[in-house]
Amino acid sequence: ALIMIANLRGIRTAGILFSLPIYGYTFGSAAVIVYGLTRWAGGSLPPYTPPPAAQDLLGQPAAALGLLLILRAFSSGAVALTGIEAVSNGVPYYKEPEVQNAHRWLVALAISFGALFIGISFLAARIGIVPDPTETETLHSQLTRTLVGTGPAHTLLQVCALLLLIVAADTGFADFPRLLSLLARDGYLPHAFAERGARLAFSNGVVAVAVISAVLIVLPVLILTFRSLGLHHERLAQRVSVASSADGQTCCPRRCRTTGSSPLSRSTTSCSRPSHTRAGPAGTSKQSIARMTRRRPRSCALVGTRSTAVFR
């Protein structure tokens, strides 16, 4: 909701709001790297305390460099390229000259990303940081904790990293409405997606992205909730059925009474319903039983005992 409101306010408002955690993370990480390189040059790197789950990984030999390991490293590093296309897609929104300004920002992104990656990797190798198998603490957090401790600087930098991950979702809100506007101009989507709002933003596209994102977030939760409720109701129904048949008598849903005068079984269940037929002094005759059977065949069982159903 916050990302949607910021984008509806316009590109300038969204850029100013979302740039704060980006600059905080970039300059904070750069300061930690410079501080770590200074201590490494002086030979005073602090001791490293691994996470509890990573204690068993210390002292083990490194895995052999194979094709799968290279592909895994390449796929993990390629994630950093997902934000580069935002510069090329937003060239028309830069100040004049647009192309030169976009080129400068693209070079600045490449330099900053490369410097942070090389600096963090170098210090992590020198300190001997190992990844957390449970993925509870990131390598960046371990490096910051080792160099500056667990004080306010570490907390502030981790908060900036968290906000940076949240802000990363703004790429979809910035680019997807533009794609919708292009499709709308070509006639593949309603023309409402090609209209700009009062803040010169594609408001309909921004709202559409927000709705789709909310559905993708809420729908799995609802599915799991209804599934758990269904399982709970099924178990409850089983318990109720077991409790209702605990006395050993389950009959058809009509007024029933049990007698023990029949010689055909140990007990006779007599199910009655409103009727003008009256039983004789000796009970129901065979003819009336036959008529009732031909007119409406019904079955009635006595759970746990063998019985004969007599309809009146």
Explain how this protein is built.
This protein has 312 residues and is mainly alpha-helical. The protein folds into 3 domains: 2-168, no CATH class; 169-244, no CATH class; 255-311, no CATH class. It is built from 10 helices and 3 strands, in the order H-H-H-H-H-H-H-H-H-E-E-H-E. Strands 1-2-3 form a 3-stranded mixed beta sheet. Strand 1 and strand 2 form a beta hairpin. Helix 1 packs antiparallel against helix 9 (203-244), helix 6 (139-148) packs antiparallel against helix 7 and helix 8 crosses helix 9 (203-244). The radius of gyration is 37 Å and the shape is flat. The two termini are 68 Å apart.
Structural class by helix and strand composition: mainly alpha
Strand order within the widest beta sheet: 1-2-3
In the predicted model, the low-confidence regions spanning at least 5 consecutive residues are 248-286, 288-312
Distance from N terminus to C terminus (CA atoms, Å) equals 68 Å
Strand content: 5-15%
Helix percentage range: 55-70%
Order of helices and strands: HHHHHHHHHEEHE
Give the averaged pLDDT, no decimals: 74
Number of helices: 10
Tell me the overall shape.
flat
Radius of gyration: 37 Å
Number of domains: 3
What kind of sheet is the major sheet? 3 strands, mixed
- The total count of strands amounts to 3
